[in-house]
Write a structure and sequence with these properties.
Strand order of the largest sheet: 3-2-1-4-5-6
Helix content: 40-55%
Bound molecules: NADP nicotinamide-adenine-dinucleotide phosphate
Distance between the termini: 32 Å
Shape: globular
CATH topology of the largest domain: Rossmann fold
Length: about 300
């Protein structure tokens, strides 16, 4: 087995993503010699120890990062600035600080300026997830065959970037480097807008009169059900994502509303060809996902 990539890996947050990394580190043995976990509540830390996925837990993030050569921020992105303030004085020289946050320009803005000299900051985002949260939700196969985007600011130490790339490869992920602004636009269309639509459509259905609401539940399998799965995601995490990718999300929403208007016009005027063409494009996208094993 190759040497562990890190001597001490510190995970700040141990929900779906953090606990999946912890499980992989435990199973593989070539990621870290020691895994230290921090969370906001003692209940989560107790559960982490029960699950046997950490060597040590710390309720104080500063204590959790002491002596770590890799620190991963795995909390909701809105918590990163506060966490960075608390850990910055305790980060070891030469350590790599990274994250798994779903927005990247905001993380560079909130965390980048707080990183002490001699510590390398490599923002990252594993593009894999489910609607479940908490330490029980994680599983070791979560990142298998999925992409992880690395968005290091210009001038970031290449050896540190390569270490984080290797961390994700050992988690089973495919790795791609891109600019943070590009990442945020792409994720706005493939993830953030679909979630916004799902939360909205569930709200619209919930506002219907009581008698129709019962039918919404009974007949959900006809399409609505898939939206409810997405809409079951953690409210704090999604609040933070929307507020931290505001510009790109609003731009994609504007485009979407224009296209939805065009579809509405086609329905109103009986433009069958337009409707068929849009449905056909949807089928094509689905086929290409299946072919690339990303379905
Ligand atoms: P999660 O399951 O809800 O877990 C969040 C973890 O962060 C918990 O351990 C929680 O501790 C801790 N935490 C919450 N608020 C905190 C705060 N204010 N300060 C410090 N710690 C706090 O979340 P997740 O789904 O793993 O998501 C974690 C990160 O990964 C987010 O930044 C998200 O954008 C990103 N991400 C998520 C997905 C996804 O599909 N879920 C995919 C890719 C990336 P307690 O349990 O003690 O409250």
């Amino acid at each position: 087995m190759p040497d562990p990539l890190f001597h001490r890996l510190s995970l700040l947050g141990v929900g779906l993503i953090g606990s999946s990394i912890a499980r992989i580190a435990r199973e593989r043995g070539d990621i870290a010699a020691e895994v230290v976990v921090n969370a906001r509540t003692q209940m989560t830390l107790d559960r982490t120890m029960e699950l046997g996925i950490a060597d040590r837990v710390e309720i104080d993030p500063a204590r959790a990062v002491v002596g770590a050569d890799c620190v991963v921020l795995c909390a909701p992105v809105g918590a990163f600035a506060d966490l960075a303030v608390r850990i910055a004085p305790y980060l070891s020289p030469g350590a790599v600080l990274t994250d798994v946050g779903s927005t990247k320009q905001s993380v560079i803005r909130d965390v980048g300026s707080l990183v002490p000299a001699g510590v390398h900051f490599v923002p990252a985002h594993p593009i894999a997830g489910t609607e479940h949260s908490g330490p029980d939700a994680g599983f070791a196969e979560l990142f298998q065959g999925r992409w992880t985007a690395l968005t290091p600011p210009p001038g970031t130490d290449e050896a540190a970037i390569e270490k984080i790339a290797e961390l994700w490869r050992r988690c089973g992920s495919l790795v791609e480097r891109m600019e943070a602004s590009h990442h945020d636009r792409v994720l706005a269309i493939v993830s953030h807008l679909p979630h916004l639509i799902a939360f909205t459509i569930c709200g619209t259905a919930d506002d219907l009169a009581d008698e129709s609401r019962q039918e919404v539940v009974n007949f959900a399998a006809s399409g609505f059900r898939d939206f409810t799965r997405i809409a079951a995601s953690d409210p704090v995490m999604w609040r933070d994502i929307f507020l931290n990718n505001r510009e790109a999300l609003l731009e994609m929403l504007q485009r979407f509303m224009e296209d939805a208007q065009a579809m509405a016009r086609a329905v109103r005027w009986g433009d069958a060809a337009y409707i068929e063409d849009k449905v056909e494009r949807g089928r094509k996208i689905r086929r290409s996902l299946i072919e690339r094993k990303q379905a």
